[in-house]
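From the methods appendix. Each design record in this collection lists the tokenized structure first, followed by the designed amino acid sequence. Records were kept in a plain field format so they could be parsed without special tools. The example shown here is representative of the layout used throughout.

RECORD:
FOLD TOKENS (406 positions):
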């Protein structure tokens, strides 16, 4: 007994020594007022966000928890459930990409629990939705519904995705399926009302577009008939008249047959988007381009009436105030010569400025390309005019000679 008592006394003496030592030496790992939040964030239970990469040396507790989550020896249902929880944690942190990775890993477990699989698909759909991957989100909602047809969240998610994809009829179908399960669900009721509103608006817009398209087609057909009636020849963009043999007469018949009016030939390539049109009185107006090669300048008239002459426009354009690029002040209406290009013969045909536009466009050598007649304007008798015309004539003769030798 004395021995036991003595041992008790020795034990008490040892504890007293330890306590005395503890009083003298401060605990080095204790939390302080300055670092307690930082230290708490290192404890898995209190962490606000998980580190991107888990280093077992720096975060042994987290590594242990992760090994438990991914323990392949556990039942598949438990593994999928753990991965679902992991994905949910990432989702709460708005880390949707990592959430998708976790949910996908859970689905790859191929567990037999339909409820877990439905939730994994639904949650992954939500993550895809927040990343803007609407089609992937919708596919997940469809998959979730297959695992669990009465999963309300999947039905809501499917309807929401269809709304974002502007599939309003499909969105209504998803809502109806959900309301059969929960007739008073506010989200589904609001979603159905919104989908129905957008569906009606889309159908109304489609009807308007169809009516507009029909009207525009009718107007273009009427315009085409008017062009054909006037005997005006159109060329489609990038099209050139076929060259005729010397044995053919010069009445333009073959070219007229080749360059018959076509709707594509009315397409203007001008940046302004101006196009030929008929007004209420049946008068045709053309977008017309004037080219001034001497100064590399242009003028564009968006609506040149077929009944107006070139002189009408030139008088306004070169009247009292001449353009700033005409440094020699020589571009007055009485000094100007107009030409249109013969695309077949690669030559220029002179135009009488007092002639109405329609009569010029009816000329057998005139072909309108890309819906926009164009005319070259030169100063009569100027050195540039003589040189320009001479070069064009030389080029035409040389081209004709080469074709004959070929």
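DESIGN:
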């Amino acid at each position: 007994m004395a021995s036991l008592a003595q041992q008790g006394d020795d034990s008490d003496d040892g504890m007293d020594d330890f306590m005395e030592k503890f009083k003298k030496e401060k605990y080095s790992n204790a939390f302080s007022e300055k670092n307690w939040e930082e230290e708490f964030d290192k404890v898995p239970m209190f962490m606000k966000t998980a580190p991107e990469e888990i280093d077992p040396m720096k975060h042994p507790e987290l590594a242990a928890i992760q090994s438990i989550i991914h323990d392949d020896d556990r039942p598949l249902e438990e593994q999928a459930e753990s991965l679902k929880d992991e994905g949910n944690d990432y989702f709460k942190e708005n880390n949707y990409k990592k959430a998708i990775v976790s949910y996908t890993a859970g689905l790859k477990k191929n567990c037999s629990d339909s409820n877990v699989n439905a939730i994994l698909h639904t949650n992954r759909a939500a993550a895809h939705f927040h990343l803007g991957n609407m089609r992937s989100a919708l596919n997940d909602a469809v998959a979730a519904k297959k695992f669990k047809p009465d999963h309300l969240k999947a039905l809501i998610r499917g309807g929401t995705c269809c709304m974002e994809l502007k599939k309003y009829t499909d969105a209504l179908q998803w809502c109806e399926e959900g309301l059969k399960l929960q007739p008073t669900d506010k989200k589904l009721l609001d979603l159905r009302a919104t989908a129905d509103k957008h569906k009606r608006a889309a159908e109304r817009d489609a009807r308007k577009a169809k009516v507009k398209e029909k009207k525009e087609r009718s107007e273009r057909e009427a315009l085409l008939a008017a062009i054909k009636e006037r005997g005006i020849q159109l060329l489609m963009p990038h099209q050139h008249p076929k060259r005729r043999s010397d044995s053919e007469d010069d009445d333009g018949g073959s070219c007229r047959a080749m360059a018959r009016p076509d709707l594509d030939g009315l397409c203007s390539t001008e940046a302004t988007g101006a196009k030929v049109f008929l007004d209420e009185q049946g008068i045709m107006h053309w977008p017309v381009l004037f080219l001034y090669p001497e100064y590399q300048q242009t003028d564009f008239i968006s609506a040149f009436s077929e009944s107006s002459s070139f002189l009408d426009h030139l008088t306004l354009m070169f009247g009292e105030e001449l353009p700033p690029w005409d440094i020699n002040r020589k571009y007055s209406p009485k000094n100007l010569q107009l030409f249109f290009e013969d695309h077949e013969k690669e030559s220029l045909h002179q135009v009488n400025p007092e002639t109405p536009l329609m009569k010029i466009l009816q000329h057998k050598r005139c072909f309108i390309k890309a819906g926009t007649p164009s005319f070259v304007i030169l100063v009569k008798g100027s050195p540039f005019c003589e040189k320009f015309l001479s070069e064009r004539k030389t080029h035409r003769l040389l081209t004709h000679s080469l074709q004959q030798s070929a």
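APPENDIX NOTE: The first strand starts at residue 234 and ends at 235.
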